[in-house]
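ok so for the tutorial part 2 we go from a plain amino acid sequence to predicted structure tokens. step 1 is just haveing the sequence, like this:
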Amino acid sequence: MTSVVDRIPGDRPVFSVEFMPPRDDEDEQRLWHAIRSLEGLDPAFVSVTYGAGGSSRDRTIRTTGRVVTETTLVSMAHLTAVDHSIAELRNVIGWYAELGVRNVLALRGDPPGDPMGEWAQHPDGLAYAEELVRLVRELGDFCVGVSAFPYGHPRSADLDADTDHLVRKLRAGADFAIAQLFFEPEAFLRLRDRLAARGCDSLLLPGILPLTTPKVLAKSVELSGSDVPRAVTARLDPLADDPAAFRAAGLDVVTELCQRLLDEGVPGLHFYTFNRSKATREVVDRLGLVANRVTT
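step 2 — the prediction. this is what the tokens look like for a chain of 296 residues:
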């Protein structure tokens, strides 16, 4: 099984994709259509998000297992500490290992029901993502990733404190970090600079969401924790009632963002797909990443 860092060579840009576990049979068909559609483009890796407890967790494990056993893709599983005891986390990590998964994104996770609600540690669980990183590394030969926040985590005092926390996660044993959504390349590049200033040269990948509808744009605001820049709203707001025009302009905005990042030496782009493939395929094609794909 190839690790995420092995699939990011640095001498040519690559891309990766993220899916969500299906909620029902119809959603599962949509998901697998997207997976098969992108498989031929040879993304560096494919990740599947994780919900704490219940069917979401079970579907994540099942979907991740199918990616490993039924496709040629390199799979990365998500794991969150929220609402889990250490014993339960050990079991999930063991399931991943048994499935053949060797890449894990270790996250503290948001409170169930309200991402901005008060976070409560499980009485027999972990309090911080860096503790989960150590646990995963202790239990097997895993390549471990963590999350990063270009605008700072909502619970961090400021950007410097947030960057210090990211450095602790990386030095706890994480091999790479994936940044949450952002609208301006400078937000990501400044995060990269802050890491470099602290002597940390770990792999940092930007998270990208193709802007195809006003609803997706609103979701980007929610996930990034930042307002849309005026330059972007000036381009997209007048097109809110014209779906085709909004989609075309939204993909232009995202493609320009990605190209700036690639020009600045970013080695890979991580696309959030919402279990659809068409927009990601279009952006990847515009950027010429298919011709530069990594072969194993």
